[in-house]
Amino acid sequence: MTTRTRSIAATLAIVSALALTGWLHAAESSLPMANPEEVGLSSVRLVRINELIQRHIDAGEISGAVTLVARRGHVAHLEAHGRTAFEGGVATARDAVFRIASMTKVITGVAVMMMVEEGKLRITDQVSQYIPEFAGLDVAVASSGRPAGSGDGERLVDRVPALRPVTVRDLLTHTSGLVSGPMSNASERPIAQRPGETLADYVPRLGQTVLEFQPGSRWSYSPGAGFQTLGRIVEIVSGRPLDVFMQERIFDPLGMGDTSFHPDATLASRLVTAYRRSDDGVELDPDPDRMQRPKFHRASGGLVSTAGDYVKFGQMLLNGGVLNGKRLLSPRTVEQMAGLHIADTLPGRLRGEGYGLGVRVVSDAVAGGSRLSDGSYGWSGAFGTHFWVDPRDEIVAILMIQTPIRELRPAFENAVMQAIID
After folding, report:
1. What is the pLDDT of residues 92-130, one digit of tens each?
2. Are 155 and 147 in contact (CB under 8 A)?
3. Which of the listed residues 8, 166, 195, 216 has the most CB atoms within 10 Å of its CB?
4. pLDDT at position 192, please?
């Protein structure tokens, strides 16, 4: 290679790097780009993330993905992989839009804690203080009688009074028993959300359901109803519809312009195709937008977002509630959210994983076989998305896919953590 050729090559490399950095500043204006080694990550080892994702693409399990790793406030890895669909898709872009499903819950949790900070509610408050229909809830007890008429093997249930009221904390920690198991699920079906309804229409009817267990006695995931109720409480105490509250109080301050309950045409055009697993491999999800219904702001899982948007939210948490001078929460409140409210000894929790306010918390990585640091917290989504915040190692990591592959989550965690070199 001649001196002139080397000079041209070096110039092109610099231009490419500046262009990439400029793109990243445009798409990730809150988080600057850094070479991995500058923030204690290995460039060579981060390539293993790409190799991991490519193996799943080659196996026909996902069409594509976006992966992001930030450390110490800088994006060190942001890669788009594969295509937006198995058939008819285009190359995945870094700003591809994904249905984040239950990763919405963490944002709802922040909204609740903002209201706590303003003195408008307490996590120890009874839900019935805000939604009177929740007073006097009963708990389901399986009877020894005949199978229920649903034909799915459920049994008739008896009702006994709840020993104590359901609290906001119970909802945040999935210890309420609200629509979180076969008996309570069956009681919710007759009053399920209907087309055109709002949270204000639906949530009060949940007072007609039976709880799966006595409040606080176990952990069992409430995929929808628990956080819909929290979303409605935010609406009541803030005086704003949930989508407006989140836009004005969370998305706008953080610069999350690609996050929405109801994607417009621009966002919809960048949505990645959703799939589900079947005995034959993967197939198109028949109703991928079921969580984005008009007027219904699904606080449990209705948001779409990008990796670039969600890392701003994650970095805000890692920073103790602030990003770019915009403070959403105090450091003490973020610590409380990520604190160990539910130990891994409570029935229903996994060994080594407790639960905070809307987030799982790694309480003992060795006992749980996790590669994450103790104190790491985050959550996942039904379409395969996954994220965590690691206060000890100053990491925010995000996996965006649209096929529910649970085994990819710990593999991604390992690929990120093995890249830390200081």
Report:
1. 999 999 999 999 999 999 999 999 999 999 999 999 999
2. yes
3. 166
4. 95
Please give the Cα distance from 20 to 355 (Å, whole number). Answer: 38
Nearest CA to 405 out of 277, 213, 219 is that of 277
Q: How many Å apart are CA 377 and CA 386, to the nearest integer?
A: 11
What contacts 90, CB < 8 A, 6 or more positions away?
83, 84
- Contact (CB, 8 A) for 193 and 239: no
Report whether 385 contacts 373 (CB < 8 A).
no
Write down the H helix ranges in 292-417: 307-318, 331-337, 365-368, 408-417
Which secondary-structure segment (H or E) carries 169? helix 168-173
Q: Token pair for residue 280?
A: 């034959």
Could you tell me if residue 11 is left (phi over 0), alpha (psi between -120 and 50 degrees) or otherwise beta? Answer: alpha
From the list 336, 128, 115, 351, the residue with the least C-alpha distance to 219 is 351
Say if residues 227 and 359 touch (Cβ distance below 8 Å). no
Q: Which helix (H) or strand (E) holds 403?
A: none
- Residue 231 is which amino acid? G
pLDDT, tens only, 131-143: 999 999 999 998 7
Kindly state the tokens that stand for 236: 């009541």
**Both tokens of residue 33?**
């780009």
Coil vs helix vs strand at 280: coil
Separation between Cα atoms, residue 293 and residue 269, nearest integer Å: 17
What is the C-alpha separation between 102 and 407, in angstroms, rounded?
A: 17
Write down the pLDDT at residue 310: 98
How would DSSP label each residue in 150-194?
TSSS-EEEEEEE-SS--BHHHHHHT-S-TT-SHHHHHHHGGG---
Q: 3-class DSSP state for residue 387?
A: strand
DSSP state of 382: T
* Rg from Cα positions in the chain: 22
Summarize the chain as % helix, strand, coil (round to 5). Answer: 35, 20, 40
pTM across the whole model: 0.91
What is 64-104 written as a DSSP string?
EEEEEEEETTEEEEEEEEEBS-SSS--BPPTT-BEE-GGGH
CA distances from 252 to 208, 295, 318, 328, 331 (A): 37, 20, 19, 11, 20
